[in-house]
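Chapter review: from sequence to fold.
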Amino acid sequence: MKGSDKSYFEDKQFINVDFTKETFAKGEYENCVFKNCNFSKVDLFGVVFLDAQFIDCDLSLAHLATTAFRNVSFTDCKLLGLQFSDCSDFLFEVSFKNCNLSMSSFYQKKMRKITFEDCILKEVDFIASDLTEANFFNCDLTQAKFEETNLEKADFSTAYNFAIDPEINQIKKAKFSSYGLPGLLVKYGLVIKD
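The token string follows.
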């Protein structure tokens, strides 16, 4: 990106910036921190975020076509309705802590060893994604969609409100707590009593 018509930012902090009112410069952001910034519905087409942090930001409904997230962490962020499935696959690596990702999509995304911690993942689309060794620590997975999803060695031991059909997902060596087992039996319409 250096030397092109796109901007390059390194080791910069962006604090309290409302990018719905100020122009967001397209380009590459390396080792940058975004704190309390508003990216709601902002077009992030082709932007590269490398070793970046988003803290207390709102990226709801931002446009992520070919956006690159390479080793990017999101903490205390609002990330509603994001199409992570549209992001660049090259070196895609993200982690989420205390974020709301409801109605977002990770369709067909490769996310081995991804971590979701204390997140709301309501109605998130994980269809056909690779979540091998993923960690869902204390996450609400109400109506999250798992179908043809690789969940081998994934940790759901503290996750709740999930419904995962073992017949149409790979769940070998995935971890579940005993109280979470009904989430694997939902399709059978069983009445499970404590």
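Two observations follow directly from the output. The mean pLDDT is 94. Residues 106-179 form a domain with the Pectate Lyase C-like fold (CATH 2.160.20.80).
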